[in-house]
């Protein structure tokens, strides 16, 4: 069992992003993909297990679950909201001695239910801020890494290059 869980209300996160909200009006799947990519890039930093839950409330089906770059994606079953799924999920996971559960949502009724089940909460807006800060941090680390990378070519004097050329041609007899 994992110790640190981050459970995200996916459509709530999309709704709190002006950019993704606009994309979602045209193409909901694209908005979901962009959210999941941002979360996957953040995944290793924040928790042992990251779960992103999407409503299937108005769609028929039994619900589904799959992994996306280390993030568990859950589509709720027909007539089940992400809120009610998350509340039950947190309740089932909770163990006050070993678990640290954080839920990302801006839904007030959901907040009260998860606090009652012993989970922490951050708003979708705060989560977007954290994702942006992490992106900046990662790109700074990559820049630093690239600066420290050893040079791929060793500077050699013309004399040494001429000697290597002689060896390469097989006429290294003096």
Automatic annotation (TrEMBL):
Coiled coil start-end: 14-45
UniProtKB keywords: Coiled coil
Membrane spanning residue stretches: none
Key word Methyltransferase present: no
UniProt cross-references to Pfam families, sorted A to Z: NYN_YacP (PF05991)
Name recorded for this polypeptide: NYN domain-containing protein
Natural source organism: Staphylococcus nepalensis
